[in-house]
Amino acid sequence: MTRKIKIFDTTLRDGEQAPGCSMDLEEKLSVARQLETLGVDIIEAGFALSSPGDFESVRRIAQTVKNCTVASLARAVKKDIDIAYEAVREAVNPRIHLFIATSPIHMHYKLKKSPEDVLATAVEMVRYAKRHVSDVEFSCEDATRSERVFLATVLKEVIKAGATTVNIPDTVGYATPAEMAELISWLRAHVEGIDTVDLSVHCHNDLGLAVANSLAGVYAGATQVECTVNGVGERAGNAALEELVMALNTRADHYACGTRLDTTQIYRTSRLVYSMIGQTVPLNKPVVGTNAFLHESGIHQHGMLAERSTYEIMTPESVGIPVQSMVLGKHSGRHAFATRLSELGYALTAAEIDAYFETFKQICDKKKTVSDSDLEAIVHNSAFDNTARYRLENFDVHSGKESTAVSVICLGNGKGSYEEVSLGDGPIDAAYNAIDKILNMGTNELVTYSINATSDGKDALGEVVVKLRNGERAVIGRGLSTDIIESSILAYLNAANKLLEMR
Ligand code: KIV
Ligand code: ZN
Question: Could you give the CA distance from residue 454 to residue 461 in angstroms, rounded to a whole number?
Fold first, then answer.
């Protein structure tokens, strides 16, 4: 019988705490819903104590998600545990995830505690967390640089105190696959009670080994693996969920274990997370990159035509990469539109379909055919404008080789229309300056700007993602149009609306 490995997704905690990966409440909720559809076992929804925003998003995710355990991270401190409990307590299956560092470097320099104090705190805090919930995970931060006998003692004692999962993080991505496998085997052989709990691995990618180390841990007997969608996370990130899961699936003959995930939801989940954090998929990203299933060389194409398995170890369908079977256009009605979205796996409400259909119709006025990737872009880019304070009513932008770019922007907010003219270094700069004049919200710093065509061809939709900072706050904005100046304006306005909303 194949072992079932639990997938613990920490995109919304370890992933989200990475610079440039922050999401707002609605964005986190939509990622959590998609993770539920994907079928992960545990969603680590955040670190409830870290901010009121994090607390609220953990609480809302705990209320919303029904088919996964929902966890909050907490330091081994009573206040953290109380707040983590408050945030997750309405979940169908709540978990508190406690951690304390166990390596000499961390205990000495960061915690300034002796190993004896760390052990006592760990045991006391696991007992304390158990008063709140039955499902308590305990992590030894920097476990792979900890002294083995001490690590084993901490694990044995926290298991006795009631921890139901113990986690071995490679916090700084220092381990090698052979070391990870050996450590997991050794712990299984030397820690009393370890077979009564889940043994988890949590690997960072500083040396590009996070997935390899996690798989080595699983091979050696870990029963839970912690990961993030697209491998997002601090520094070089965490183990990538899609790579782990597809390695376990594709090489089931080797690993002899599986997960409960619906792998056909992987591509959609990956796209959603990239779009939420305003990043584009690297072309050669394993499993979900645009080139991951492309075969350009003649020899490969010849082999593929003869028999797919010559060069394909998994199929694009198995990860849910849409196979284009129909294109929509000007004459497609709401029914065909809704049917195609549902075939693509989107479970949308009637109100959402109405909103997207409106965008779709506007796009059809400018573009003959709308492909699946265009449809996905519509869903990912128009979802967050429902609460827009300011909408784009009109724009007029001029630029030329010998002339200064000038723009006229007209925005409406339901109370009136506001128009401003501005110059700039280029058409987009001029448009952004005019928006700033209208919104008058202090200095907006454009941190990043990226543009991506959603499909091939000259009439492709341009998807613009910007990161905008105002004071302490930074948000992502998205815009979509066949006109890249318009998508640039929409993205900036989307971000500015979010900043205004936060005030
Ligand atoms: O990397 C790490 O050590 C962590 C723990 C808090 C689990 O993220
Ligand atoms: Zn981590």
Answer: 6
Gap from CA of 214 to ligand 2 centroid (Å): 13
Tell me which residue has its CA closest to atom 5 in ligand 1: 141
Q: Count the residues in the chain.
A: 503
pTM of the model: 0.84
Q: Helix, strand or coil for residue 11?
A: helix
Nearest residue by C-alpha to atom 8 in ligand 1? 14
Q: For residues 200 and 6, what is the distance between their CA atoms, to the nearest angstrom? A: 9
> Which secondary structure element, helix H or strand E, spans residue 30, and what is its range?
helix 25-38
How far is the centre of ligand 1, averaged over its atoms, from the C-alpha of 13 (Å)? 10
Query: What pLDDT, on the 0 to 100 scale, is given for residue 127?
Result: 98
Token pair of 423 as six digits:
């110059």
- Give 151-171 pLDDT, tens digit per residue: 999 999 999 999 999 999 999
Output the CA torsion sign for 286, 287, 292, 295: positive
- CB 44 less than 6 A from any atom of ligand 1: no
102 lines ligand 1 (CB under 6 A): no
Kind and range of the H or E element at 119?
helix 115-132
